[in-house]
Amino acid sequence: MNDIFMESPKTARELYQMSYECYQTGLFETSLEWIEKAIAAQEQDLSYFHLRGLILSKLQSYAKALQDFDRIIQYIATTKLLLEEEKSLEVPTLLGRVQIYFQQKNYRGLIEDSQALLQIQRNHWQAFFYRGIGHYFNQTYQQALDDLEMAFYLSNEKDKVRPFRALVYYKHARYKLAQADFEIAVQQKPHDAVLWYNYGLNTYRMDLFESALASFDTALRLGLNTPQVYLYKGKTLQQLGRYDEAEKCNSKINP
Fold first, then answer.
1. Identical fold at 1-99 and 165-255?
2. Residues 130, 147: contact at Cβ < 8 Å?
3. Dmax over Cα atoms in the chain, in whole Å?
4. How many other CB atoms are found less than 10 A from the CB of residue 144?
5. What is the CATH number of domain 165-255?
6. Where are the beta strands (DSSP E) in 51-170?
7. What angle is formed at CA 168 by the lines to CA 164 and CA 169, rounded to 5 degrees?
8. Which of 35, 120, 231, 254 has a CB 3.0–4.6 Å from the CB of 19, allowing a cystine?
9. Is 215:197 a contact under the CB 8 Å cutoff?
């Protein structure tokens, strides 16, 4: 074990460092214990609250994490003379809040904080990415496409953007472009049942019925046993002339 964990910490900064090292190695519960002690010893350092917000996010304690992030944003917004270290926390804190809004499906917050990020850093790819997702779920598809294409262009994590860009292409009936993204995405995430379902919808729209059927079957095998999957599997089977099997799918929808 690292010697720092064997010593009796004497300062809040040592406690913070121990918490940070635990956070980096995925020991989130232990990390939270150390940062709580650091904050108790020094309640003025915003970086401590930022780290606690990150830890709480990993532990899915989103409401408490937001309290820490909100505290930092409010302080930055209302303080005229900021230290450089305090000012530098604005972007990562906004991003932390955005990522929580994504988990909570708070798409309005997603759009607003992503926009705030872009006002600070005009080429922040994650801000374009999350704002695009917010627009997608708000059904403002052109804005979603513009943002996700920009995110794809700026990012070196294109596999993260690709499944969402495929969805927006699908909404724009640009099925060939969606197909290219879906084909790569399902290879990257072969156990994502929703992704296979969406891939099946796109291939169905392209009249690639055998491929669509295989995608719907994969989604079902991975546990996505929803009426929508059976509905489109039944439609696909009808297109293939397999009417008895299609009827069995219909019975799954209306038992």
1. yes
2. no
3. 76
4. 24
5. 1.25.40.10
6. none
7. 115
8. 35
9. yes
Least Cα distance to 133 among 103, 160, 110, 154 occurs for 110
DSSP 187: H
Domain ranges of the chain: 1-99, 105-156, 165-255
Length of the chain, in residues: 255
The whole-angstrom separation of Cα 12 and Cα 120 is 31
Looking at the chain, the number of H-run helices and the number of E-run strands are: 15, 0
Residue type, 178: A
CATH of domain 1-99: 1.25.40.10
- The answer on pLDDT for 252 being more than 90 is no
* CA pseudo-torsion sign 239, 240, 243, 248: negative
Q: How confident is the model at residue 7, as a pLDDT?
A: 58
Q: Provide the strand spans (E) within the chain.
A: none
Query: To the nearest whole percent, how much of the chain has pLDDT over 90?
Result: 89
Which pLDDT belongs to residue 9? 53
Measured CA to CA, the distance from residue 153 to residue 190 in angstroms comes to 24
What are the tens digits of pLDDT across the range 92-115?
Answer: 999 999 999 999 999 999 999 999
Query: Crossing angle for the helix pair 158-171 and 125-137, nearest 10 degrees?
Result: 30
Phi, psi of 106 (to 5 degrees): -90, 85
Residue whose structure tokens are 């002690």:
37
Percent helix, strand and coil across the chain, each to the nearest 5: 80, 0, 20
What angle in degrees, to the nearest 10, is found between the helix axes of 46-58 and 62-78? 150
Q: Are 184 and 159 in contact (CB under 8 A)?
A: yes
| Span 212-244, pLDDT tens digits | 999 999 999 999 999 999 999 999 999 999 999
